[in-house]
Design a protein that fits this description.
With about 170 residues, the protein is α/β, with parallel strands linked by helices. It is built from seven helices and five strands, in the order E-H-E-H-H-E-H-E-H-H-E-H.
């Protein structure tokens, strides 16, 4: 049983990559955005960045879901921005069976991807606030760092290979 939090700024491909890995491994997919209360979604739609106070209940709800998955002996991919170390401490903390995968990409590349997507509540204008809030994971967090430059299939394959190398899957 393993849970992998797939993190990165909006537009980095969290859901796409988490879905691809989940499908390949037969694991559950948890979309972190579905845990946002309506007030958070409304703020983001209006172009207002969320504050830490806005994020705490959301992160705690995702952490409860991670604990429920672990208690059930299941494995899952959790797509969640998890931009700050303090947020990842809530989601991962001292859970030895929860790993971190970081989708890393340039502001320019991710900006182009956000501009091209349709129907998402996160407007392109909030990307700068995402990069401003981003605290890239350090070595102590033992992240699996995945470049977002390749296509989704290549990133999914790299993620699966990294999970295998770490002994998180067989």
């Amino acid at each position: 049983m393993t849970v992998v939090v797939v993190m990165g700024v909006s537009g980095s491909g969290k859901t796409t990559i988490a879905r691809g890995v989940a499908e390949r491994l037969g694991w559950e997919l948890v979309e972190g955005d579905t845990f946002h209360p309506p007030e958070n979604v409304a703020k983001m739609k209006a172009g207002t960045p969320l504050t830490d106070a806005d994020r705490w209940p959301w992160l705690q709800a995702i952490a409860r879901e991670i604990d429920a998955i672990r208690a059930g002996g299941r494995s899952a991919l959790v797509a969640c921005s998890a931009l700050k170390r303090s947020y990842r401490a809530i989601l991962i903390g001292d859970r030895p069976d929860v790993a971190l995968a970081y989708l890393q990409g340039s502001r320019a590349l991710i900006g182009r991807r956000i501009a091209a997507r349709k129907g998402h509540f996160m407007p392109a204008g909030l990307l700068d606030s995402q990069f401003a809030a981003l605290e890239e994971p350090g070595p102590e967090e033992r992240p699996i760092v995945l470049s977002v430059a390749p296509g989704p299939e290549e990133i999914v394959s790299a993620a699966v290979a990294a999970l295998r190398e770490r002994g998180l899957i067989t």
